[in-house]
């Protein structure tokens, strides 16, 4: 019974010592807050930049992949001499005879060069519109407004001018595709692109069995060697590859961030070897063991690094998903047209965890290792 009471008292005493020790570490941190402020701000800036790039890339990939998955199983295009070629009803008939194909539909799309602004508009067909109406994206509308095309726009062709009324503007929430897009009646679109009634720029092929999509795509390319059949899987892989490349654009930023990180680490090491060397020696002289000093430094710098990490992530979230990343958006989306796209909030916790691991752990290591070396050295050297 006595042993049990002593054990309980011992645990309570250790608990009190632990709480007091943590309180002392926090009080010491606030006392030396000026020494840690530079490291805190620099580390928060690093996390902010990396998280912003991660959020933008992840959001765009998410929207594009969802857009790709909503379309037909296979999209067929034709090429001749390296340029886009037109397809005729014979393509539709032959492809529809392939086993596994449920439906084949010919569509028309293209691009229109707006000379005055030196930008390209993407043209798509929409059967629900009248021949003299069109729906435009916000980027297109902004470009037209600058030249006072408020209610209608005149498309210039080789033969004539085609006036079309602007029915409405698609909202920013409609997705990435709408910003520089114009939707027109198929007959109007054919007139602008100078296409005949039975000429198509793309074929949409429906394959109900997802396991047969790749095989059907291969059969289409074998049937028409000048064609290119892009399946959903290929399109998703293409999007991911594109934004892996876009992420590669930021290698220069990453290098800059790493240079800043090394400056941060140098500051951390100088704190351990410089002004804090005497403090560590004093702690040793009043009875603190090496383990206690390491734990003390761990608590202080863990609070600094985790607080800076959370602040950087929160600021990046607000910068990207609330302010729409005004400085970084153009690098990912281009700046030919004004971008009115709202980024879809996407949090990739696995990548955030990697940033945390490869940021916080080196941050702590470059403090704890020098502190351990100082604590293990001769106390008299530190007190001089």
Flag low-confidence runs: 1-17
Give Rg in angstroms: 31 Å
Overall strand count: 11
Shape: elongated
Q: Going across the biggest sheet, name each strand in turn.
A: 4-5-9-6-8-7
* Mean of pLDDT: 79
Describe the sheet with the most strands: 6 strands, mixed
Put simply, the count of helices is: 13
Give the quaternary arrangement of the chains: single chain
Q: Tell me the strand percentage band.
A: 15-25%
Secondary structural class? alpha+beta
Task: Give the termini separation.
Answer: 51 Å
Helix content class = 55-70%
Describe the structure.
With 384 residues, this protein is α+β, with helices and mostly antiparallel strands. Helix content is 58%, strand content 16%. The chain contains 13 helices and 11 strands. It has helices at 2-31, 33-69, 89-96, 138-145, 186-193, 213-223, 232-249, 251-273, 275-285, 290-321, 329-333, 349-376, 379-383; strands at residues 74-80, 83-85, 103-107, 109-114, 119-125, 133-136, 152-156, 161-169, 181-184, 202-206, 227-231. Strand 4 (109-114) and strand 5 (119-125) form a beta hairpin. The longest helix is centred in the first third of the chain and has 37 residues, at 33-69. The two termini are 51 Å apart.
Short note summarizing the structure:
With 384 residues, the chain is α+β, with helices and mostly antiparallel strands.
Name some characteristics of this structure:
384 residues; alpha+beta; 11 strands; 16% strand
Layout of helices and strands, plus pairs?
Blueprint: H1 2-31, H2 33-69, E1 74-80, E2 83-85, H3 89-96, E3 103-107, E4 109-114, E5 119-125, E6 133-136, H4 138-145, E7 152-156, E8 161-169, E9 181-184, H5 186-193, E10 202-206, H6 213-223, E11 227-231, H7 232-249, H8 251-273, H9 275-285, H10 290-321, H11 329-333, H12 349-376, H13 379-383
Parallel strand pairs: 5-9, 6-8
Antiparallel strand pairs: 1-2, 1-10, 1-11, 3-10, 4-5, 6-9, 7-8
Helix pairs in contact: 1-10, 2-7, 2-8, 2-10, 2-12, 8-12, 10-12
């Amino acid at each position: 019974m006595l042993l049990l009471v002593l054990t309980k008292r011992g645990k309570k005493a250790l608990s009190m010592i632990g709480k007091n020790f943590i309180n002392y570490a926090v009080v010491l941190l606030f006392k030396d807050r000026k020494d840690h402020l530079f490291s805190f701000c620099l580390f928060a800036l690093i996390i902010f930049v990396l998280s912003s790039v991660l959020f933008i890339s992840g959001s765009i990939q998410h929207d594009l992949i969802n857009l790709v998955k909503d379309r037909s199983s296979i999209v067929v295009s034709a090429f001749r001499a390296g340029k886009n070629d037109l397809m005729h009803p014979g393509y539709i008939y032959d492809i529809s005879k392939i086993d596994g194909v449920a439906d084949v539909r010919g569509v028309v799309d293209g691009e229109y060069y707006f000379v005055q602004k030196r930008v390209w508009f993407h043209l798509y067909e929409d059967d629900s519109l009248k021949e003299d109406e069109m729906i435009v994206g916000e980027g297109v509308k902004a470009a037209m407004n600058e030249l006072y095309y408020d209610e209608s726009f005149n498309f210039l062709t080789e033969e004539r001018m085609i006036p079309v009324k602007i029915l409405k503007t698609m909202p920013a929430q409609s997705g990435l595709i709408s910003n520089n897009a114009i939707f027109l009646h198929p007959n109007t679109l054919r007139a602008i692109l100078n296409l005949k009634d039975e000429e198509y720029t793309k074929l949409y092929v429906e394959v109900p069995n997802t396991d047969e999509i790749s095989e059907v795509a291969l059969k289409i390319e074998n049937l028409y060697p000048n064609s290119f059949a892009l399946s959903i899987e290929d399109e998703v892989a293409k999007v991911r590859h594109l934004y892996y490349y876009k992420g590669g654009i930021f290698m220069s930023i990453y290098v800059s961030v790493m240079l800043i990180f090394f400056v941060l680490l140098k500051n951390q090491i100088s704190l351990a070897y410089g002004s804090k060397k005497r403090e560590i020696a004093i702690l040793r002289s009043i009875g603190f063991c090496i383990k206690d000093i390491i734990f003390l430094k761990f608590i202080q710098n863990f609070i600094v690094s985790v607080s800076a990490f959370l602040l950087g992530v929160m600021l990046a979230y607000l910068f990207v998903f609330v302010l729409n990343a005004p400085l970084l958006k153009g690098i990912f989306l281009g700046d030919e047209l004004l971008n009115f796209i709202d980024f879809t909030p996407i949090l990739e916790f696995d990548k955030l965890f990697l940033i945390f691991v490869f940021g916080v752990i080196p941050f702590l290591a470059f403090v704890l290792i020098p502190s351990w070396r100082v604590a293990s050295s001769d106390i008299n050297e530190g007190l001089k």
